[in-house]
Automatic annotation (TrEMBL):
Compartment annotation: Cytoplasm
The organism of origin for this protein: Trifolium subterraneum
Region (Disordered): 528-555
Keywords recorded for this protein, A-Z: ATP-binding, Chaperone, Cytoplasm, Nucleotide-binding
Primary role: Molecular chaperone; assists the folding of proteins upon ATP hydrolysis. Known to play a role, in vitro, in the folding of actin and tubulin.
NCBIfam families assigned: chap_CCT_gamma, thermosome_alpha, thermosome_beta
Keyword Cytoplasm among UniProt keywords: yes
One GO CC term on file: chaperonin-containing T-complex
UniProt protein name: T-complex protein 1 subunit gamma
Length: 555
């Protein structure tokens, strides 16, 4: 079967099994090493140069890996992990990469001893089931209504981020925003749609302390005719439209032949009457503010301003949806279908303010807003971008807790507990799978070990002491305080993690490690670029000996 491997030299490249495993493991470890220093509150920041020449300063695992341009397929799939983690639970993006890298690292020894990857994966999957069972045991329920507990949790989750120096500010913003937007979906569960209904508006200038969550929405628009229309309306009646308030242009090139001069004025008059009728259909509901996603002609602007109605045009669809959720209006597609129930009366104040050199429209003081805007102020664009990234993480954590109100200890305590539980259980596992199972238990220690490294304490002493505390499956809440590197009780220090985040981290990391271990071949179908003018090269037949010596990546 292996007498000769036929490979089209210019389009296919191949590597043999053991080599591929080593290459994949090395690539994954390299990715993990890049962001290893960004775990924990005393972590380093990374400065990234992006493709457009701008700079990003951050210690958010996902934000760093997003900017990396890596050719190796295994490294690419590691980077995907942090993105998955970010989309799914929004936190733990660094932990998941470190854990997956460590899982692969401990597997390397078994690959060298000719263990079959399937055996290693089986052991890992067993370890994953037992790890989830272990965190189920130590999880602690939390009351979502208790703001103090929620604040402590969100704070400990963003304590590892750059904005932790601003204290409760970001945690407060996150909890306010997510509790505003949450909707009941029955059976006592709440759902929070951060992406669609919480808008983060970054306005450079002023101090970060002036950031706040609005009881309503704001957007970067001014009224159409500033001099004629009111810029401040108390308790406005709001109508939202999804249609243009201007005369429809003909499709393509429409020709109209007019024989008499009067016809021309008649044509103009018809256009004016059409717009007037549109405006009258809207005005009979006595609105104070009309917002449309499309255009609004000068004539329509005249009719509306004459009746004391303010108008805003060309608003984004997403902003319009948020206004609808905030003030209880319904977006209408045709003015002649307007009903009284479509008018939004939930807002307490419409106001246009000038911040910096731009005008922003605020629709605030809403009765029961189901959408909100977080207004962030700060010294510079870079600072605001980093605060926004941290705020997204904080809101995701708040959402996870609202969805699944359970806590586990942070500071590496959960991982040490899981590790101790797996080590105890490994003695009862029979057969060849025992050793990889034990190795997986050791791999979990990489998180507290990295925390200790980033604090700058003696890693070996700290880890030995921590292992001693966790030895018999007791002291589940003892972990490392990321600020001082001291071993402490996580309950007292209020260092917590959301159950969802931990469970997702373990699942993603182990499943990804298994997937990468099971790859025994990388076949690249990328054609080499030919020199211009050269004829088609003949495919060269290659024997198996050549295939093994082939390098998968150019040096």
């Amino acid at each position: 079967m292996h007498s000769s491997v036929l490979v089209l030299k210019d389009s296919l490249k191949r590597e043999s099994g053991a080599k591929v495993h080593h290459a994949n493991i090395q690539a994954s470890k390299a990715v993990a090493d890049i962001i290893r220093t960004t775990l924990g509150p005393r972590s380093m920041l990374k400065m990234l140069l992006d493709a457009s020449g701008g700079i990003v300063v951050t210690n958010d695992g996902n934000a760093i890996l997003r900017e990396l341009d890596i050719a190796h397929p295994a490294a690419k799939s590691m980077i995907e992990l942090s993105r998955t983690q970010d989309e799914e639970v929004g936190d733990g993006t660094t932990s998941v990469i470190i854990l997956a890298g460590e899982m692969l690292h401990v597997a390397e020894a078994f690959i060298d001893k000719n263990y079959h990857p399937t055996v290693i994966c089986r052991a890992y999957n067993k370890a994953l089931e037992d790890a989830i069972a272990a965190i189920d045991k130590i999880a602690m329920p939390i009351d979502v209504q208790d703001r103090g507990q929620m604040l402590g949790l969100v704070k400990s989750c963003i304590g590892t981020k750059f904005t932790s120096q601003f204290g409760d500010l970001i945690a407060d913003l996150a909890i306010d925003a997510t509790t505003t937007v949450g909707v009941d979906i029955g059976q006592g569960l709440r759902d929070v749609d951060i992406k669609n209904y919480i808008k983060v508006e970054k306005v450079p200038g002023a101090q970060l302390e002036e950031s706040r969550v609005l009881k309503g929405v704001m957007f970067n628009k001014d009224v159409v005719a500033p001099g004629k229309m009111r810029r401040k309306i108390v308790n406005p009646r709001i109508i939202l439209l999804d249609c243009p308030l201007e005369y429809k242009k003909g499709e393509n090139q429409t020709n109209a032949e007019l024989l008499r001069e009067e016809d021309w004025s008649l044509l103009l008059k018809l256009e004016e009457e059409y717009i007037e009728e549109l405006c009258m259909q809207i005005l009979k509901f006595k609105p104070d503010l009309v917002v449309t996603e499309k255009g609004l002609s000068d004539l329509a602007c005249h009719y509306l301003s004459k009746h004391g109605v303010s108008a805003i045009r060309r608003l984004r669809k997403t902003d319009n949806n948020r206004i609808a959720r905030a003030c209880g209006a319904v977006i209408v597609n045709r003015p002649d279908e307007l009903q009284e129930s479509d008018v939004g009366t939930g807002a307490g104040l419409f106001e246009v303010k000038k911040i910096g050199d731009e005008y922003f429209a605020f629709i605030v003081d809403c009765k029961e807003p189901k959408a909100c805007t977080v207004l962030l102020r700060g010294a510079s664009k870079d600072l605001l971008n980093e605060v926004e990234r941290n705020l997204q993480d904080a809101m995701s954590v708040a959402r996870n807790i609202i969805k699944n109100p359970k806590l586990v200890p942070g500071g590496g305590a959960t991982e040490m507990t899981v590790s101790a539980a797996l080590k105890q259980k490994s003695s009862s596992i029979e057969g060849i799978e025992k050793w990889p199972y034990e190795a997986a238990a050791v791999a979990f220690e990489s998180i507290p070990r990295t925390l200790a490294q980033n604090c700058g304490v003696n890693v070996i002493r700290t880890m030995t002491a921590l292992q001693g505390k966790h030895a018999n499956g007791e002291n589940a809440w003892i972990g490392i305080d990321g600020n001082t590197g001291a071993i402490a009780d996580m309950k007292e220090r209020k260092i917590w993690d959301a159950y969802n985040v931990k469970a997702q981290t373990f699942k993603t990391a182990i499943e990804a490690a298994c997937m990468l271990l099971r790859i025994d071949d990388i076949v690249s179908g990328i054609k080499k670029k030919q020199a211009p003018g050269a004829g088609p090269s003949k495919p060269k037949i290659e024997t198996e000996g050549d295939a093994d010596g082939e390098q998968i990546l150019p040096d």
